[in-house]
Amino acid sequence: MVLGCVVFLCLLVAWKGVSWWKQRALLSKAEGKNVVVATEAVRTIAYKKYGGAVSRLEQLVGKDTDKAVRLAAIEALGAIGRTESASVLVPVLEDPDRDVASQAAVALGRIGSAVATEPLCKALAAKPVQLTALWALGEIGDFSAYETVRRFRDDPDPYVSYNAVQALKKLGAGG
C-alpha cells in the first residue's frame, strides 16, 4: 500500500514537471522571432489553458509584438478567462487596428468580468468594434449596459441591430 502511494506520488510529480517544462518551452517559442511558430505556441497555450502563462501572454498583447501573435495572445487570455486580464485588454479596445480591438472585445466577453462593461459601452462609439462589443456586453450580462445597448436596437445597420437585440436578450431585457 505504501509502495503504491509512493509510486503514485512520483508519477504525479513527474507529470506536473513535464507539464511545467512543456509550458516553459511553449512560452519560449511564443516569444521567438518566427511569427508562425510564436502564434502556434500561443494558440497551444490557450488550448491547454496554461494559467501560469497569463503574465507572459499579457506582455505579448503589447504593441511591439507582431499582429498575429498579439491576436493569438488576446484570444488566449480570453480562453484562459482570468478576470485580472481584463485590465490589460480594456485599453486594447482603443487600438487603431480594428482586428486587434475587436479581438479584445471578444476576449473580454469570454472573461465575463463586469469591469469591462463601461469600457465596452464606450467602445460602441467606434463603428469597427460595435458588433463584437455588443456581443461581449451580452456575454458579460451586466444589466447596467442595458440603456446603452438599447440605443443600438434600431440601428440602420442590420448586423448592429441584430447584435443589440441578442445582447438585450442575454441581459434579460428582451428585444
TrEMBL record:
Pfam family, one: HEAT_2
A single GO molecular function term of this UniProt record: oxidoreductase activity
Domain of life: Bacteria
Keyword terms of this UniProt record: Lyase
Lyase found in the keyword field: yes
Database matches in SUPFAM superfamilies: ARM repeat
PANTHER family assigned to the protein according to its UniProt record, in alphabetical order: DEOXYHYPUSINE HYDROXYLASE, PBS LYASE HEAT-LIKE PROTEIN
Name of protein: PBS lyase HEAT domain protein repeat-containing protein
SMART domains per the UniProt record, alphabetical: EZ_HEAT (SM00567)
